[in-house]
Amino acid sequence: xxxxxxxxxxxxxxxxxxxxxxxxxxxxxxxxxxxxxxxxxxxxxxxxxxxxxxxxxxxxxxxxxxxxxxxxxxxxxxxxxxxxxxxxxxxxxxxxxxxxxxxxxxxxxxxxxxxxxxxxxxxxxxxxxxx
Length: 131
Description:
Blueprint: E1 3-4, E2 10-17, E3 25-27, H1 34-42, E4 45-51, E5 57-64, H2 65-84, E6 94-96, H3 97-100, E7 105-109, E8 113-118, E9 122-127
Helix pairs in contact: 1-2
């Protein structure tokens, strides 16, 4: 658990920075184990923050727990497959913005940035040319 909301519900918080990569992705956990999967499932909601390279908040999203289930299920399946194959735990898999954004309520977008869906890249956040 990363935080509690005002009603005492657990909130999972994931953050990332904009950089030169073509896509935005959020790190999950150092290693994905059953403990991590259980923690993810116990969260009442998730908050995703995107920061600039200069550590300024650019975008903030909230996703309710039930909307995160397909993403958690994929992490859980990959973890079980790795275990069955005798492979080590996955180190810090990423959750792409393309998976988060369709499920999310946007809480904030900095006026100097824009967000759009690109058919090839998925959801993109970039600095506005006029900013």
